[in-house]
Amino acid sequence: MQPDxxxxxxxxxxxxxxxxTCERALGLAPHALASSRAVLRHxxxxxxxxxxxxxDHLLEKAGADRTLKGLSLGFGPGVTLEGILWHRGGDHx
Length: 93
Known about the structure:
Strand content: 15-25%
Helix content: 25-40%
Oligomer: single chain
Order of helices and strands: EHHHEE
Radius of gyration: 13 Å
Number of helices: 3
Shape: globular
CATH topology: Peroxisomal Thiolase, Chain A, domain 1
Number of strands: 3
Structural class: alpha+beta
CATH architecture: 3-Layer(aba) Sandwich
Number of domains: 1
Distance between the termini: 29 Å
């Protein structure tokens, strides 16, 4: 799987530098992390629950009628990384 195969990127916004580094390392377009940046701007880093706010923001913007692949990444102290590749089918009405 390549970065272009992912529709939605839910990166835990531990800080602006984390998001900038992920964007560069994964070769993402600036809009790919718009939800992560919006959550960071409006709420700050709320620790673990922040990723759920990012996913909610992403899914709300995407609408319910599309099938989507997403990748969520969270970072912890030291060199801790947790990730999940997920799929949401369309027509959830």
